[in-house]
Amino acid sequence: MAEEEPSSLASIAKCQRLPVKEFEKQYKDHLSGFHQWEQKHHAEDWILFEENIGKQLSIDEVAISQGELYTIVTNKAAHGGRGGIGGHGGRDQSY
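Predicted structure:
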């Protein structure tokens, strides 16, 4: 039976008695497809989730930490649930 709740890489590594940092690095470098990801070259600046774009969008700025602002585009039809984030802009320093 498939799991219904997502598991973190750290919890999988601990369960399998693997070094957490090494498992995370192996996942990123070999299993995830990260290095072939088509948005990798601009991911620090912006990411677009085309499947989550709808007719009504919201644009918000969110302060995460230490004055960094992120621009988030959300799909109103998702009502804050799964498929809600349509994209995000990179970090902007607030002054």
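Summary: The first strand starts at residue 46 and ends at 48.
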